[in-house]
Amino acid sequence: MKRLALCAALLLICFAVAVYGYFSLKNGCEELIAVLESAAVSIREKKNEEAGEKLAKADRLWKEKQRSFNVFLDHDSLENLDSSLPALKKLLDSGNPDPAFEGIQKCIAALQNIVDEQKICVQNIL
Q: Which candidate, 42, 31, 33, places its Cα nearest to that of 100?
């Protein structure tokens, strides 16, 4: 009976950690996506200085969220974002905002892919 209770407790803990991790990742990704989309809107409206501020905010936000993302995700899925987000402001400052806009779209797609891959299922719980 004790073993059954222990197994049930372990499964409950695994499930709780998986649910917490999913919602933590989902909220962090949605927050980053919102900032990146507002930067993309600023680029389309030719407000490059405002877009630069939003990209700097996205980079700061990424650095805050990166530690928790590293706990719940494999590092391969984060390498692209880790190198792309800091480079976006440099692309914008180069004078041609089109590469920065394309980079923002790629980062948004990568973040949406992270949320889709981490949906709660048996494989992600165990």
A: 42
Cβ-based neighbours of 26, under 8 Å, separated by 6 or more: 115, 118
pLDDT digits (tens, 9 = 90+) for 37-80: 999 999 888 888 898 899 889 989 988 888 888 877 777 777 87
| Residue bearing tokens 């905002």 | 97
If we measure between CA atoms, which residue out of 1, 10, 7, 25 comes closest to residue 120? 25
- For residue 28, which of 94, 102, 90, 118 has the smallest C-alpha distance? 118
Q: What is the pLDDT of residues 20-35, one digit of tens each?
A: 878 888 898 899 999 9
Provide the token pair at 79.
């390498």
CA distances from 11 to 1, 2, 70, 75, 125 (A): 15, 14, 23, 25, 9
